[in-house]
Every structure is written in C-alpha cells, then in structure tokens.
Amino acid sequence: MNRTGFACFFVLMAIAGSAQASGRVYTINIGHNAPPPGVNGLDMLRYADDDAARLHGLLASASDESFLLSDLDRDTRRRYPQLARSAREPSLAALRNVLKRIVEQTTDAVAREQRATVFLSFSGHGAISEDGEPYLVMSDGPLTRTMLRDEVLSTLRELNVHLMIDACHAGALVSGRGVFDREREAEQVP
C-alpha cells in the first residue's frame, strides 16, 4: 500500500470508528468490471471488483453489518475466497434489498434519535446516457443520478451517508450545487 493508500485507510478507519461510537455503522461496497452495454470504446475493467473487496475488508471490521455487491473475477476470488462466498451480484435489485434491510434495522434507532451511518462505495464504469444523465453501470441496468438521489440517498435520508464513487463522470453524478437537499459547503459543516 502506498502513502495515499495508508492515508485513506487511516481516514476511513477514523471516520468508521467515530461513527461506530455514536451508533450503528453499515457499509455497502459495490464493484462492477463490466462496461455499459452498447457503449463503444469501453473495455472490461480489471480492478473494480478488487477495489470493492479491499474497501469491504477495511471497513467490515468497523461495521455492524457490511455488504459486498460485486461480481468477483477469478483472480479476486482466489485472493479473497471468504468474500467470494458472501458477495452478491452488483445489481440494482441487490442494492434495493440492502437498502430495505438497513432501513428496517435503523427505523427504531432513528425514532429514538440514535445515529446510524452508511458508507456506500462504487467502483466501476460511469457513463452519460443519450439524454445527458450520468449513471453508474450495475449488472442489471444503470444507476442514474436521479435514482441515486431518489432511491438511494432519499431512502437513507435519516442516516449519515458517506458516498465514495470511483468511476468516470463521478463528478456529474453528485455535482451541481443543490442537487441533493443536504449538500453544504465544507466550511459550513460544524
């Protein structure tokens, strides 16, 4: 691991440790190597599944529950045999099931004003649709910016969410001041 990797590791562990001390912590790590269907010029990725597996391994020990949604390739399954057994398909359907489970588990805690934190990471291809909407490539369809806002972040609106995206066009998915209701300038955060 290089210096940047060590720095990221310590920052993530500090955040996860702080979140765990104040409530439940969940991690959702998504890694998908396949390019978007019908888009020319994009090859199969080699390491998106590895990135998700590594981050899952780092954060799982600081989480109350962690989910790995990744189609691990042969090399990654060999490196992480224990994860190969528990990894789920990186699909919209699997993501919706995970979100439902997290909301069910945190509803009572939120009602008692207890904190819960979700670390959601994606590593894979990002693209822009013909109508100009950015999206992340999942195994069963695109996770569009609208879906990210309306189905994912809205579902988790009562929780603290840390979103990490490693994909082309990631900035287009989350940029544009005011796209997400909870967006604030860094200097305004207490």
Description:
- The chain is globular.
- The protein has helices at residues 3-21, 48-60, 74-79, 81-86, 92-111, 145-153, 170-174, and strands at residues 23-32, 65-70, 115-124, 126-128, 134-138, 141-144, 160-166.
- The chain is built from seven helices and seven strands.
- The longest helix is centred in the middle third of the chain and has 20 residues, at 92-111.
- Helix content is 41%, strand content 24%.
- The protein is of the alpha/beta class and 190 residues long.
- The two termini are 32 Å apart.
- The strands form two sheets. It has a four-stranded parallel beta sheet, sandwiched between helices. A three-stranded antiparallel beta sheet has the order 4-5-6.
- 35% of the residues are buried.
What attributes does this structure have?
4-stranded parallel beta sheet, 7 strands, 7 helices, 190 residues, disordered C terminus, single chain, alpha/beta, disordered N terminus, 3-stranded antiparallel beta sheet, globular
**Number of DSSP E strands:** 7
Distance between the termini: 32 Å
Can you give the mean pLDDT?
Answer: 84
- Order of helix and strand elements from N to C terminus: HEHEHHHEEEEHEH
Largest sheet: 4 strands, parallel
Spatial arrangement of strands, main beta sheet: 2-1-3-7
What's the alpha carbon Rg, rounded to whole Å? Answer: 16 Å
Structural class: alpha/beta
**Low-confidence runs:** 1-7, 177-190
Q: Estimate the strand proportion.
A: 15-25%
